[in-house]
Amino acid sequence: MDADMRYCVKCKSFLEQSKFVMAKNRNTCREHINKQHAQYQIERWKKHPMERKAHTIWQIAYLDCRKTFQIKMKLGLKQV
Ligand SMILES: [Zn+2]
């Protein structure tokens, strides 16, 4: 057995050590930790819908802001 390989209980297979986050969650690869985190976030948002709304609104606001800013820039240039 290669010493650089570690077992992921979610993949049910051995993976390169680089696919793991050091120290934390020794039996789960990085990819699965990310998935777990996403799942946790979804569960959290189910319990706290406002938090999810806030997050969504922030994302929309951020994108809108960028779009609006670009449009303003274009308008500004035309109007000048
Ligand atoms: Zn895995």
SSE string, helices as H and strands as E? EEHH
Domain count: the total is 1
Helix content: 55-70%
The rounded Rg comes to 22 Å
Q: How can the largest sheet be summarized?
A: 2 strands, antiparallel
| Low-pLDDT regions | none
> How many DSSP E strands?
2
Widest beta sheet: strand line-up: 1-2
**Structural class, please?**
mainly alpha
Q: Span from first to last CA? A: 70 Å
Overview of this structure, please?
This protein is mainly alpha-helical and 80 residues long. The chain has one domain (5-79). It is 61% helix and 10% strand. The protein has helices at 30-47, 49-79, and strands at residues 5-8, 13-16. The protein has a two-stranded antiparallel sheet with strand order 1-2. The protein binds zinc ion. Zinc ion binds next to helix 1.
Please give a quick description of this structure:
With 80 residues, this protein is mainly alpha-helical. Helices cover 61% and strands 10% of the residues.
